[in-house]
């Protein structure tokens, strides 16, 4: 009987540790998913920005541009659209490596601070 009660206590303790570990992993996966969405957004901006530069190059005469090209360029003159597109692409591909390099530390910091808050609430 004493052995059974010890096993029940051990099972409850292990189950609590497993639940805490699963919650921590789920939170990490959620934050990593947000990071992936940020990668997608930054690369979409870079793609659009550099695409604008190419479109401006091939449709250099503004008065002969089709309506969809003018709309894609935001009805800006070619020089402004090309400059802005290049700036957006450069910005996105400058920020992306910083996110890639900094996100593991940021996610780890967020997880540890949330873990501390959770332990304080439980106590």
Dominant shape: rod-shaped
Could you state the order of secondary-structure elements as H and E?
Answer: HHH
Radius of gyration: 26 Å
Give the integer mean of the pLDDT values. 88
Outline the biggest β-sheet.
none
Which residues form runs of ≥5 with pLDDT under 50?
Answer: none
Helical proportion?
over 70%
Report the total helices. 3
Structural class: mainly alpha
Could you tell me how far the N terminus lies from the C terminus, measured between alpha carbons in angstroms?
31 Å
How many distinct beta strands?
0
Strand content: under 5%
Please provide a written account of the structure.
- The chain starts with a helix and ends with a helix.
- Helix content is 88%, strand content 0%.
- It has helices spanning 2-58, 67-72, 78-122.
- The protein contains three helices and no strands.
- The model has no long low-confidence stretch (mean pLDDT 88).
- The chain is mainly alpha-helical and 123 residues long.
- The protein is rod-shaped, with a radius of gyration of 26 Å.
- Helix 1 (2-58) packs antiparallel against helix 3.
Please provide a brief summary of the model.
The protein has 123 residues and is mainly alpha-helical.
Sum up the structure in keywords.
single chain
Tell me the layout of helices and strands:
Blueprint: H1 2-58, H2 67-72, H3 78-122
């Amino acid at each position: 009987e004493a052995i059974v009660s010890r096993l029940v206590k051990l099972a409850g303790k292990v189950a609590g540790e497993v639940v805490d570990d699963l919650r921590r992993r789920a939170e990490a996966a959620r934050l990593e998913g947000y990071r992936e969405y940020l990668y997608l957004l930054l690369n979409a901006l870079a793609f659009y920005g550099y695409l604008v530069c190419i479109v401006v190059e091939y449709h250099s005469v503004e008065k002969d541009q089709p309506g969809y090209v003018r709309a894609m360029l935001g009805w800006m003159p070619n020089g402004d659209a090309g400059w802005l597109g290049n700036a957006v692409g450069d910005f996105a591909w400058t920020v992306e490596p910083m996110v890639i390099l900094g996100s593991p530390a940021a996610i780890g910091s967020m997880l540890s601070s949330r873990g501390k808050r959770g332990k304080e609430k439980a106590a």
